[in-house]
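Box 3.1 A note on notation
Throughout this textbook, protein chains are presented in two layers. The first layer is the amino acid sequence; the second is a token string describing backbone geometry. Keep the layers aligned when reading.
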Amino acid sequence: MTTSAWVGERVRLRAREPEDWEAFHAFDEDSDAVRSGWRLTPPTSVARAKKAAIEHAEEELDLDEFSLAIATKAGNLLVGSVNTHTIDRVHGTFSYGIAVGTPHQRKGYASEAIVLTLRYMFFERRFQKAEAWVYGYNDASLALHRRLGFVEEGRRRRSHYANGRYHDEVLFGMTVEEYTDRYAGGRPTSTRPATTKGTAP
């Protein structure tokens, strides 16, 4: 029996494929969810969505900075994505973004995807700290990170503009020691379903 470091109890993290364009294109129809994850943009054409999906699928593999699809363990249904960014190999820190499509929220997919991603970055790539910026109006993502054991480290006031208002950004952090203390074998010991729409990428 084989096991994969990318598979949890609910989700599997896999490479993004060209055929994923349709699901991601549909997720972008929810403007509130798009604002929670990054910024609202004009609608994208089907042709551009297909082209972007192909380009993502054909990108050269980077062991530290990557974007993966979040799919259900049973059925391989695409539910969202997770990506790493702001890689600092000198200091051993990285950031990540997470987004789960509105129809698939409150099922624990985001929390498990984060735990799997951090396990890889901590235990395979030797990073020592993960960081995530969350917009102050994204109550679901704020609650998610607190529930996962992240420490609120700071706040950038009025640094993000969305839906006619300026908003704060909240910085969360988790060290490899904090992760190891909280998670046995890299999986949540106790995690309620997530209600997140995303974090700042």
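The chain is about 30% helix and 30% strand. The longest strand covers residues 151-162.
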